TrEMBL record:
GO terms for biological process: transmembrane transport. The lineage of its organism: Bacteria, Bacillati, Bacillota, Bacilli, Bacillales. InterPro entries: AAA+_ATPase, ABC_transp_ATP-bind, ABC_transporter-like_ATP-bd, ABC_transporter-like_CS, P-loop_NTPase. This is Peptide/nickel transport system ATP-binding protein. Residues 4-250 form the ABC transporter domain. CDD domains: ABC_NikE_OppD_transporters.
Length: 254
């Protein structure tokens, strides 16, 4: 059984624009699947549907074989801890009125009673926050600061720490490095790769940057105008059988 499975997922905006057109793919445990495509192709809408922040018109979204798309918010709550996200703008993801330690503790306070953690151990709040800060290679003293006192790269590491704090089944990474400088981008991708292996996480890595997707992913999906037009294993990126649109994306990063 796949960890995540999408079957014929379609969505049309109120203005009649078809933004998702029959999306089919699966994601296995401990795997990173990359989703690449230009801005406006429907990637972020798909992420919102998987996270149950937007509805779908047709199809199915299954997590460990359980349908998510037809549940109300009360019935979704047990599943929410198992799908976490890291978005492209860490400033918007963090409450400016909360210190970093409070933001890191929030998922546990909401869902902790449902969590059986293998790698992090909640004995008290201070030790739990320390473990999370260490996991994302941040000094523990930053936990006492507010978001505006951290750099962009540090804030994104905090959002990563919060996302992994309950060791979710799936982390949806939606353009997680696009707001960072080149050095921070590289360091963040390296960190994410290490955490996936160390914590046995699964990722859906969404980006317009094919080079980043190729670095992170075992399987790659190429999206254009709401449809997946190409799919392949990482080592098949430069195959002559690639879709013409994939070849266009490759040419941008050579």
């Amino acid at each position: 059984m796949s960890l995540l499975e999408l079957k014929n997922v379609s969505k049309t905006y109120d203005n009649g624009e078809a933004v998702l057109k029959g999306i089919n793919f699966s994601l296995e445990k401990k795997e990173c699947v990359g989703l690449v495509g230009e801005s406006g192709c429907g990637k972020s809408t798909l992420a919102r549907c998987i996270l149950q922040l937007a509805s779908i018109d047709e199809g199915e979204i299954l997590l460990n074989g359980t349908a998510l798309h037809n549940k109300n918010e009360r019935k979704l709550k047990p599943y929410r801890r198992n799908i976490q996200t890291v978005m492209q703008n860490p400033t918007a993801s963090l409450n400016p009125k909360l210190k970093i330690r409070e933001s890191l503790l929030d998922p546990y306070l909401q869902y902790g009673s449902q969590a059986v953690l293998k790698h992090f151990h909640y004995t008290n709040e201070t030790k739990f926050v320390k473990q999370l800060m260490e996991a994302v290679e941040l000094p523990e003293e930053l936990a006492g600061r507010y978001p505006h006192e951290l750099s962009g790269g540090q804030k994104q590491r905090v959002t990563i720490a919060r996302a992994i704090s309950l060791e979710p089944a799936l982390v949806v990474l939606d353009e997680p490095t696009s707001s960072l400088d080149i050095l921070s981008q590289s360091a963040t991708l390296k960190l994410l790769n290490g955490l996936r292996q160390q914590l046995e996480l699964s990722y859906l890595f969404i980006s317009h940057d094919l080079s980043a997707v190729n670095m992170m992913s075992q399987k790659i999906l190429v999206m254009k105008e709401g449809s997946i037009v190409d799919r392949f294993e990482q080592e098949e990126l430069f195959s002559e059988s690639r879709h013409d649109y994939t070849k266009e994306l490759i040419s941008l990063y050579q």
